[in-house]
Design a protein that fits this description.
single chain, mainly alpha, two-stranded antiparallel sheet
């Protein structure tokens, strides 16, 4: 029988297991600190946003790192997932349905709606490349946000009423209920997002992307990224694989939107929530963590989300330190000397661990 060792384990499998272990260990440490009263209420309030941004960053990294397409519209997919799931939750609020089941169904709905929008947007958009694709996806995010801001949806005994003019045009009965109230969004949402739910969704997202990129489909997607003409010449269906990767990336962003929506009592499509800055922030997580590195995206999302809050006491120097950390992370990830140093350290640790196991 062949003796098990770290040397015999595939590099991709080892990296995937390290990423899973990192998330699980971080979850265990945080839970221990929360239960032991060692974490402030401010930091506890950041736990769900940390999971949210990590999930969306993983989805965007699939698009940028493996598909090779720059998308600035993932805040739009996040917005679609958030509002579709919140709409379902608000609509079913008085149905007597179990809250956990309702949240799971809302999650599924948010993911599916975001995937459908990703497919619909991807069909015309993925014919473009580079900066043109980035501009069109950015426009999509802005369109979605502005459409939701003028959308009025209510319900009464006659069913669902929809308008893009104003609340009065719905002609609701006296006992009617507003679900989406234009720029005011959706109010009184059941806050069901928890740190446990966020970690579970993150692990599922990691499982999906790892399974995809290490499969035959993933190799086809990376072949398109590396050389589109060569991939097409050997029979790879360019449109099919690009659309698949883009839709899965959008679906994962939608899952992050569901978690985001159910962590708030009122959900609005304001620029601060789903605007251009949100898309850029997520892209920063991906670039600083390393394009193509899902683990790096999670680490960057956690550090850069926590840092402004940790430094809040240093009001005069907070953003200066934040900027210095951004530069340091960029140099650490992308400077040639830093890359060589990390490779040497990784090889030494790998050989040392392999010898210990043997």
């Amino acid at each position: 029988m062949k003796k098990f060792s770290l040397k015999n384990m595939k590099k991709t499998t080892k990296n995937n297991l390290i990423t899973y272990a990192m998330v699980i260990v971080a979850f265990a440490v945080v839970e221990f600190m929360v239960n032991g009263g060692m974490m402030s209420s401010l930091m506890q309030g950041l736990l769900v946003p940390l999971c949210t941004y990590s999930i969306v960053a993983v989805g965007l990294n699939l698009c940028v790192g493996y598909l090779g397409e720059l998308s600035l519209g993932h805040a739009g997919f996040m917005c679609v997932g958030a509002f579709s799931s919140a709409f379902f939750t608000k609509y079913m609020a008085n149905s007597g349905m179990n809250e956990t089941l309702r949240f799971v169904l809302a999650l599924i709905i948010g993911v599916l709606v975001a995937a459908v929008f990703g497919c619909l947007i991807g069909i015309p958009v993925l014919r473009l490349r580079g900066d043109y694709l980035a501009i069109v996806t950015l426009a999509f995010g802005e369109i979605i946000k502005n459409v939701i801001n003028v959308l009025y949806v209510g319900r009464d005994s006659n069913g669902i009423h929809l308008s893009i003019r104003d609340k009065a045009s719905l002609n609701l009965e006296e006992d009617g209920e507003m679900i989406i109230d234009g720029a005011k969004g959706i109010s009184r949402i059941s806050r069901q997002s928890t740190f446990v739910a966020g970690v579970i969704i993150l692990l599922i997202a990691l499982f999906v992307v790892f399974h995809l990129v290490n499969s035959r489909t993933g190799r086809a997607i990376m072949a398109i990224r590396d050389n589109r003409i060569a991939a097409e010449s050997v029979g790879v269906n360019i449109t099919r694989y690009k659309l698949l990767a883009f839709s899965i990336s959008a679906a994962i962003a939608g899952a992050g939107g569901v978690l985001y929506a159910h962590n708030l009592s009122t959900l609005t499509a304001l620029p601060a929530n789903f605007g251009y800055n949100m898309s850029i922030m997520i892209l920063v997580f991906v670039v600083l963590g390393g394009i193509g590195s899902f683990r790096g995206s999670i680490i960057a999302a956690v550090i850069l989300t926590m840092l402004p809050e940790v430094l809040r006491g240093l009001s005069d120097y907070r953003m200066l330190i934040y900027s210095i950390v951004l530069i340091a992370m960029m140099l650490f990830n992308w400077a040639p000397a830093s890359i060589e140093w990390r490779q040497r350290i990784s090889k030494r640790l790998f050989h040392k661990n392999a010898e210990e196991v043997q």
